Amino acid sequence: MSVWYVEDDRSNLNVIVTALAATRQNFDKFEYGLFDQKDLDFVGISVKKKPGNTPLRKANVWHRDLVELTIDKATRLVKTIFNNLEKKRLLREDIKTRIINAVRAGDIDLQKVNKSMGEKIEKLIA
Amino acid sequence: MSQTQTTHKSSFAEISDLPLVDTLARTDIHFWPNLVEQTPETFETTTLGKPEEWDKQLHVHFLDSRGRLHIKPIFSFSNSEETGLLFEDLEVRRGSSEHLSPRESREPEHITASTSLNNAHQIQVRSKIEALFNSYADGEFEDGMDKEFVEELGALIFGYNTKAVNAIADIVATNTANPEVVSEALCSLGQFRHPRSYRARLFLLERSLRSPSRWIRDGAALGLASMKDIHAVPYLREAIRNEQIPDLRKDLELVLDSLKQ
Predict the structure, then answer these.
(1) Mutation test of the interface with chain B: which of A30, A54, A84, A93, choosing the one with the most B Cβ atoms within 10 A?
(2) What distance in Å separates the CA atoms of residue A59 and residue B220, rounded to the nearest whole number?
(3) Cys-Cys with A52: which of A60, A74, A97, B99 at CB 3.0–4.6 Å?
(4) Range from A15-24, A71-80, B95-104, B151-160 carrying the lowest mean pLDDT
(5) Residues of chain A with C-beta less than 8 angstroms from the C-beta of B222
(6) Looking at residue B38, what is its pLDDT?
(7) CB within 8 A of B211, min separation 6: which ones?
């Protein structure tokens, strides 16, 4: 299972969100949840660094895989984080702005973007 | 940032000197009995009921063929022949009759195209919308993915204009479709670039913030976020005051903040 490591000061959060949003076909609202790494330790789930594969290169270093994940551990993880999960939503326009800005800054590799998303981006930056 | 398309002005409040209570954009008489009106200040609910039960305090604001604004008690408003015009959108504000001038004129508002009240056609359009909603009733909508549902809905909006919006309003009011499908529809309504149906879509989204379904309230808020029209601000404020679900209240506040920027 893929998760993304967010620094304690959340300095990389925006980049990760933009990176994940850029993997989609469309500009749309984006929702995510943050939980503490201690919850993984509590459930006994190991984390492995593995580069991500988003179009936003500099975000890919923060990708992690949850390994040796059994159904039991996954269930316990959900139960553990359920009440403490910090949920956040970003609106469609916000996501669109972030992606376009990242494209203009040269942070997003348009060759790696989904074709449908790429067409939408190109219309906006044309 | 607000849309440059038609926006509903606060002119009625200027005319009537009354606080804004509500606006509607419906001509379908079947919609009215299901309507519940709230005043933001008191939160009293008043069922508008059947036309024969409307009292003289309910006034209709409409534009004649020259774009002049008229205000008439709704009980006196019978048919288009009497007013000499055909129109599509009806705006109603509740107020005390003695505080309103019998007739006011102003600069023509930019109104949507007029058409006759054609129930047969409206029913046909509603069937198409219902069929679309039912065909996606078992599916799931994934954020960020292109959705055929949205394309098909867009085609109906572009093809049938406010009749399609009215059909969706009917479905929302009568609670006859999967609320998650309705939510997705409402969310999409805000994204279509279609001036003719703009006001109807805006009004529907504002009204849907009062739905008993959390999915529909959420979809309506997302639709309003896309429209970026500050006309929705008082409706969102009211929805936030009334919202019992904390997560959804946060989401509504997010939309309100986005409109204020």
Answers:
(1) A93
(2) 33
(3) A60
(4) B95-104
(5) 29, 91-92
(6) 32
(7) B172, B217, B220
